[in-house]
TrEMBL record:
<keyword id="KW-0694">RNA-binding</keyword>
<dbReference type="GO" id="GO:0000932">
    <property type="term" value="C:P-body"/>
</dbReference>
<protein>
    <recommendedName>
        <fullName>mRNA decay factor PAT1 domain-containing protein</fullName>
    </recommendedName>
</protein>
<keyword id="KW-0472">Membrane</keyword>
<feature type="transmembrane region" description="Helical">
    <location>
        <begin position="387"/>
        <end position="407"/>
    </location>
</feature>
<feature type="domain" description="mRNA decay factor PAT1">
    <location>
        <begin position="93"/>
        <end position="233"/>
    </location>
</feature>
<dbReference type="GO" id="GO:0000290">
    <property type="term" value="P:deadenylation-dependent decapping of nuclear-transcribed mRNA"/>
</dbReference>
<keyword id="KW-0963">Cytoplasm</keyword>
<dbReference type="InterPro" id="IPR039900">
    <property type="entry name" value="Pat1-like"/>
</dbReference>
<comment type="similarity">
    <text>Belongs to the PAT1 family.</text>
</comment>
<keyword id="KW-1133">Transmembrane helix</keyword>
<dbReference type="GO" id="GO:0005634">
    <property type="term" value="C:nucleus"/>
</dbReference>
<dbReference type="Pfam" id="PF09770">
    <property type="entry name" value="PAT1"/>
</dbReference>
<dbReference type="GO" id="GO:0003723">
    <property type="term" value="F:RNA binding"/>
</dbReference>
<keyword id="KW-0812">Transmembrane</keyword>
<dbReference type="GO" id="GO:0033962">
    <property type="term" value="P:P-body assembly"/>
</dbReference>
<dbReference type="InterPro" id="IPR019167">
    <property type="entry name" value="PAT1_dom"/>
</dbReference>
Length: 408
């Protein structure tokens, strides 16, 4: 067999092509013409720069060698068939998911045949959401390391001897606190109040903010309070692990330091209608079903009552007292219609607040829901084992009716 192959190889012509019978002469001519058309270009210096530069250099070299005798021997050039000038090309691959599809004018514009477009599918959007959550968790982890240094510096403050060293330590601590507060905000918020929202939706972010609040300035802490009250519905709806109560102690401290005008601004955010609801009491109804929301509402009302009953000048803005009165009536109306949960902390001056503003009609409305409204304000009262719950509720009714009749 080897001998036969050797004989056959010697018998073949040297220019024999093993692929000569695959395509006919007509098909070869068609392929060659198509390739030549693809090489056609309206701007060869831009589309075929290297080819044109090669021929330019070759012509210059021949001109130098022949000393001006170039006309005797013309160098070979590529001649393409004439093609009519086409209209301005418009890429057709603008539809999502069409990457790789052949365009109509591929043979005339081979370099523009594929126009890469970014196609978004639900799987990629879900992946983007996971990546955003992962980025938020990484940021919180880094900020926690800085917060640990801040807390360590606060503990070292008691052991500092000199005033100069103490001032330097306070400056370093303040810079770190400002850095955490700036990094805690969303770099590209969609709205003005969404800057803390991505971190507050994470359980670890709530704990970070709860530990950071005591170190913040009064304005920064008030800003955090307003963000929490404005976005309270979405925070409560996504609080699956019930980690919102960790924010209550530091926020209650912030509420205790606000002025009357600032308190009115926070209450406006609290009672403002959510984007998904046309009723302004929607946020209040949701707050009454959450321990954190109801406790935050009680703390705001308690601070307002404390400011009004104190001798400190309030310096209110125009319309603050009207807004305060409307808010108290709105809260009382919502409390009379909602099934309340047990709050985290019940202020002792809420009874005085409601008795100051409630009329007899509202008292009768509250009597219809004794288990929902009247029991929470009297949770701080001592229990009497010899009396039934119905007797205690009746005593509460008589006490509130008596006080309201005096004020009215």
């Amino acid at each position: 067999i080897a001998l036969i192959r050797i004989c056959c190889s010697h018998s073949r012509k040297p220019d024999w092509d093993p692929y000569c019978n695959i395509m006919s002469a007509k098909e070869k001519e068609w392929i060659i013409r198509l390739q030549m058309i693809q090489l056609q270009s309206e701007n060869p210096n831009l589309d075929d720069y290297y080819y044109q530069e090669y021929y330019r250099r070759m012509e210059a070299k021949l001109a130098e060698e022949e000393l001006g005798m170039r006309g005797k021997r013309e160098p070979p050039k590529l001649t393409t068939p004439y093609v009519t000038k086409t209209e301005s090309y418009t890429p057709v691959v603008h539809i999502e998911g069409s990457l790789g599809q052949v365009a109509v004018s591929t043979c005339f514009n081979p370099r523009r045949a594929i126009d890469a477009v970014t196609a978004h599918c639900p799987h990629e959007e879900l992946k983007d959401l996971r990546q955003q959550r992962l980025d938020v968790l990484k940021k919180i982890e880094k900020l926690f390391m800085v917060l640990l240094d801040v807390e360590e510096g606060q503990r070292m403050k008691a052991h500092v001897l000199g005033e100069g060293e103490e001032s330097r330590l306070m400056e370093r601590t303040q810079r770190k606190v400002e850095y955490i507060f700036s990094q805690f905000q969303n770099p590209c918020p969609l709205e003005a109040g969404d800057e803390f929202l991505p971190c507050l939706l994470v359980s670890k972010g709530k704990r970070l903010m709860a530990r950071l609040l005591p170190f913040l300035s009064r304005d920064a802490a008030l800003k955090v309070l307003r963000v929490v009250t404005f976005h309270l519905p979405i925070l409560m709806s996504r609080d699956t692990d019930e980690s919102l109560p960790v924010l209550y102690p530091p926020l209650r401290t912030v509420i205790g330091a606000v002025t009357f005008s600032q308190l009115i601004g926070v209450l406006k955010d609290f009672t403002a209608s959510s984007p998904d609801s046309s009723d302004g009491s929607d946020c209040l109804s949701l707050a009454c079903q959450s321990k954190f929301g109801l406790s935050l509402l009680y703390a705001l009302l308690s601070q307002g009552e404390r400011l009004l009953s104190s001798d400190v000048p309030l310096e209110p803005s125009i319309g603050d007292f009207e807004t305060w009165t409307d808010t108290v009536f709105l809260v009382a109306s919502q409390l009379s219609q909602s099934a309340l949960v047990e709050p985290l902390l019940l202020p002792s001056n809420l009874l005085t607040l409601f008795c100051r503003y409630l009329d007899k009609r509202t008292v009768h409305q509250l009597k219809k829901h004794p288990n929902n409204v009247l029991i929470p304000p009297f949770c701080c009262l001592p229990t009497f084992p010899h009396f039934s719950a119905q007797v205690l509720v009746s005593v509460c009714f008589l006490f509130i009716s008596f006080i309201c009749s005096i004020f009215i």
